[in-house]
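Good day; I would like, with your permission, to put a structural problem before you. A protein sequence and the structure tokens that stand for its backbone fold form the material at issue. Thank you for your consideration; the sequence and its tokens are set out here:
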Amino acid sequence: MLELDFLGVRVAYRTWGEGPPVLLLHSGGGSSRQWEKVAALLAPGHTIIAPDLLGFGNSGSWPEAGKLTHTLQAGLAARVLEAATDSTVDVVGHSYGGATAICLALAKPARVRSLVLIEPILHNLLKEADDPLFAGSLMVGRTFIEELDAGRPERSWQTFLDTSNGAGTWARLSEAQRQRFLAQSEQTKEAFISNFNNETSFADCRSLCMPTTVAHGTRTWPVYRRIAALLLEALKRGHGATIDGAEHMSPISHPDEVARVISNHIERCRA
């Protein structure tokens, strides 16, 4: 992996392939590893750039507890782009990374040619819409933090993963997979806090001028489907896509379909 410094924190990122650049931003609790299968499918025609966001994978954590924001994560992504390419990029963000991708596009619109947003976590859109799903959208994160603070990290992850990805997800994981998640517990708590504090608004989304595909799995949590629908309605140049049979972690469970959504999006942008 490649490394650089971002505001005094070590940041790791990886690259694959050659061609027009595509930036991949991972979900909370994950790392750039989640993109390995998708990147292998895209790399023959693209340079794939995938950082470990602050607190995840091989990147360092933000030193101030409770102060991690998507603005900081977007700053990390911009710093990685400075090091990796001079070109404008197609940016793909999944879940937590989708919220960061929007912040990056708002802050650096000249660097972002287009967006693919796969179930981005945007609680504030539900709040602004006075949507009845808003309270439930916060419940999983709050429960994660409460269980973790009470010394029950396994319960934190079981509730989170089973709600987001279907009942029994935690039980089906191998012991090695569980340990990887448990090792990210404190960092994931910080990610939930940054999601709660993310104020990305309908006005922000309406201001985005680049082509944007908003995708969701057909079996994902209703909260994520609703956020995707609200976002799509707000975008000037939005296009909707579904990933058949997928729950929330589609880049891992359905890499072929996710790569196809990304490739189709890029082809539309070139047309």
Notes: The CA atoms of residues 57 and 114 lie 26 Å apart. The beta strands are 2-6, 9-16, 21-25, 47-51, 89-94, 112-118, 212-217, 238-243. The longest helix spans residues 134-149.
